[in-house]
Amino acid sequence: MAIFVWATKYMISTAAYQDLIQILLHPQFEKKHLTTNLQCLKKQREQLPLMKIQSHMVPINTKNTPSTSKDSTRAYYFSLIEHIQRILNNPSLSSHLYFGPGIFSNSCEELWEGDLWAESPLFGLPNIITLQDSFNCGDFVKYYSASKTIEVGRIRSFVIVNKKIATRVQRLFSYEKIPQYLRSKQHAPCLLQKLYLVEESEPFIINPSSLICCLNVWLQDQSAPPKVDFFVSKILYNYNGR
Asked: What's the CATH class of domain 126-238?
């Protein structure tokens, strides 16, 4: 009866009452842990690993508001860095987190399925070693195409495709390989080393074993390297086959 009177007097909600019952019936609950002083109860908060609540004043636009409205209020927040640290240090959560190479997916639903993750030096796979050489993200390379011809490209990232490591390549075209409608005497190269960097909407993925060797390619909007195998002065954008 005393519990009923207490719950009615203070209008205890069903959820709050159920929580109280769970505490009282818990096998680790002991009556000696109860304190009759509310201030002592509040001090127990300091023993809990709770995040520190921070605050700062936020200005309020008083336009079209009552004259009694304040022009600022206090906003409370948790530190984002501390929140992430707690997640990473939580054993029950860390086992479900992913920190491996980017995973290729036609429909990106997770962060690690996008280019940002795959090309990031923090999360993605920065390099790979094959029987031919060691290759890093960003390297210009020669590689074998599906038809076994030797092509030139730039490694964008190493991703997982069907549970195997693959290489995502940004292709470079010679003048002869660019679309006919883009060719003209004005754009005809005077040197065989001139290539066109291609931005494609669909990723071009090859097997790492198809990589042959690294090249020195000069992007002409940057400083020239000491040795140049090819140079690029223009970018071709390929979208929907055009």
From this structure: mainly beta
